[in-house]
Amino acid sequence: MNQVKIAVIVGSLRYASLNRKLAHNLEKVAPAHFILNQLIIGDLPLYNQDDDEEPCKEVIRLKSEIHAADGLIFITPEYNRSIPGVLKNAIDHASRPYGKSVWRKKPAGILGVSVGMTGTALAQQHLRNILAYLDVPVLGQPEVFVQDKKDLFDGEGNLGELHLPLIQNWMDCFAGWVKTQTAESTQIS
Amino acid sequence: MNQVKIAVIVGSLRYASLNRKLAHNLEKVAPAHFILNQLIIGDLPLYNQDDDEEPCKEVIRLKSEIHAADGLIFITPEYNRSIPGVLKNAIDHASRPYGKSVWRKKPAGILGVSVGMTGTALAQQHLRNILAYLDVPVLGQPEVFVQDKKDLFDGEGNLGELHLPLIQNWMDCFAGWVKTQTAESTQIS
Questions:
Q1: Record: contact A50-B13, CB cut-off 8 A
Q2: Contact A114/A78 with Cβ under 8 angstroms?
Q3: Is the Cβ of A85 closer than 8 Å to some Cβ of chain B?
Q4: Could you point out which of A91, A149, B35, B170 has its C-alpha 20 to 30 Å from the C-alpha of A186?
Q5: Distance from CA of B77 to the nearest CA of A (A)
Q6: What share of chain B is helix, strand, coil (3-state, %, to 5)?
């Protein structure tokens, strides 16, 4: 089976990020032909339109990694009822300059963990608004809103038995979504 | 009359920013006792929760300027149907660490200019969602959604005759809003 390259974008920079732990767990449940590549977004400058003509190497790297991907997974915390500025900054960079966005038509999925009981639900809605504009088709169901409770991860960062089947099911649906979207774009083009 | 200190936060970093031009025009229509201070957000690092205990000097500066302000004006472009990552990053910094946000109860107003015909309307809605969570009371009406058309600004960056009365009216309403909110918080406390 052909390899499917998935760019994974984690919205938090902190070392012990719950969302990064979730990203690592996704690797265990992904199909064998899926290659998950976690992108680095913490070394990007703050987006400034004046740099559009001469982007720095970090922006060029980000855009080429997204360009090369067959699909996208966003795993994000919720900051102040929206996505982190860190994540939006990466999205803005890769969407510019006008007409040169690399996001378009890459099938995507969204997940998130937070300490709050809404489990990043509102951040995910803002992200869906943004991705709709960028013409990124996003998996609708199942939604994954995870609250960090005792024993969500064990000491090695492994998801507990309660959540692993949920993430396995999500990944199976996401894999099907990527396949459908890829087939559709092949038929159209 | 006592001075009223307003922190002005512009969501774009580019040199010829339309929103920064609008910010400069606001100074012309503000009451004499209003002191408008444009905050610098372009030198902030990307927010990382690991730095909460030892914030850098740029973050300390931002938080102390907001803390000292009697009110806030956000002037923002719309990037991908939301606020710029640059602006969200500044908001995230000044909201942290948990329990130490400096945004709470500062009366605010929002304006925006964009080249698109919705004039930043969707970015402003996302910003309202975020500010509601941060307990920032935001002026409801009049809304200011400005589309950049021919002659919006003259060669020196002055607003044309069509828009200046609109901005004057907005500022009058905003000044009343700040006064009401300040009086309310004095009564409550």
A1: yes
A2: yes
A3: yes
A4: A91
A5: 12
A6: 40, 15, 45
Q: What is the ipTM, given to two decimal places?
A: 0.96
Out of B85, B129, B132, closest to residue A88 by CB: B85
Rounded distance between C-alpha atoms, residue B29 and residue B177, angstroms? 15
How far apart are alpha carbons A61 and A40 in whole angstroms? 9
The answer, for B115 touching chain A at a CB cutoff of 8 Å, is no
Distance CA B85, CA B91 (A): 10
Q: Which two tokens stand for residue A28?
A: 């265990």
> For the whole model, what pTM was predicted?
0.96
Cβ distance A86 to B47 less than 8 Å, yes or no, reads: yes
DSSP string, B32-98: TTEEEEEPP-TTPPPP-GGGTTS--HHHHHHHHHHHH-SEEEEE---BTTB--HHHHHHHHHHT-ST
Are A92 and B80 contacting, i.e. CB atoms less than 8 angstroms apart? Answer: yes
CB B81 within 8 A of CB B122: yes
Q: How big is the CA angle at B107 (ends B102 and B109), to the nearest 5 degrees?
A: 115
Give tens-digit pLDDT for A5-14: 999 999 999 9
pLDDT band, very low/low/confident/very high, at B188 (cuts 50, 70, 90): low
C-alpha separations of A116 from A72, A122, A148 in Å: 25, 11, 8
Distance from CA of A30 to the nearest CA of B (A): 28
Counting Cα atoms < 13 Å in the Cβ hemisphere of A30 gives 21
CB A46 within 8 A of CB B13: yes
The answer as to CATH 3.40.50.360 being correct for domain B4-188 is: yes
Compute the CA torsion angle A89, B58, A116, A75 (nearest 10 deg).
Answer: 30
Residue with tokens 């963990």: A113
For residues A5 and B3, what is the distance between their CA atoms, to the nearest angstrom?
A: 58
The predicted structure's pLDDT at residue A62? 98
A129 CB neighbours in chain B (<8 A) are 81-82, 122, 126
